[in-house]
Amino acid sequence: MGILSWIIFGGLVGWAATLITGHNKDTGLIENIVIGLVGAALGGFVASEFFDVGIRRFSIQGFVIAILGASVLLALFRGIRKR
């Protein structure tokens, strides 16, 4: 995927993760993109290392794993921020 595709993908994943965790009002576009990209990397790493699920190209499975990774990342950051 090109850089523009990664930015759009990160934005969609980050937005979906903030909707799931209930923090949509607290985040902006750039934060959604960063959360989505880092969460996708985290979700992809966990899926490949622990569940032997390789993601090489865009798929619904990869999108769901990215959303789960971003949601976990967002929940961890929000938990740390509250302390």
Write a concise keyword list for the protein shown above.
mainly alpha; globular; 83 residues
Protein model, in words:
There is one protein chain. This protein is mainly α. The protein has one domain. It is 77% helix and 0% strand. It has three helices and no strands. It has helices at 3-21, 29-50, 60-82. α1 (3-21) packs across α2, α1 (3-21) crosses α3 (60-82) and α2 crosses α3. The chain is globular, with a radius of gyration of 12 Å. The mean pLDDT is 84.
What does the secondary structure layout of this molecule look like, with pairings?
Layout: H1 3-21, H2 29-50, H3 60-82
**Proportion in β-strands:** under 5%
- Sketch the topology as an H/E string, one letter per element: HHH
- Radius of gyration over all CA atoms, rounded: 12 Å
The description of the largest β-sheet is:
none
Number of helices: 3
General shape: globular
Uncertain spans: none
Which structural class should the secondary elements be placed in?
mainly alpha
By DSSP, the count of extended strands is 0
Span between N and C termini?
Answer: 38 Å
Mean pLDDT: 84
Q: Which bin fits the share of residues in helices?
A: over 70%
> How many structural domains?
1
Structure summarized in a few sentences:
This protein is 77% helix and 0% strand. It is mainly alpha-helical and 83 residues long.
